[in-house]
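Hi L.,

As promised, DUF397 domain-containing protein:
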Amino acid sequence: MPDITWEPPFCGEGNNCFRLGTDAAGNAYIAVAGQEERPLTDSRAALRALIQDIKAGKADHLL
């Protein structure tokens, strides 16, 4: 497992907590808080695009 620097958990309503992280190789990670040993990984650019799309409301239909 690479050395991942995790941000503090982001928690929505209820118990839906997620953590974002990055490593020195330029990869980005997202994991359910408490399950950081099983993250999804992609490039930082892909994670940035995901966050921008969520902020722009493109995922509101999933809520």
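Residues 5-56 form one domain.

Thanks again for sending the construct details.

K.
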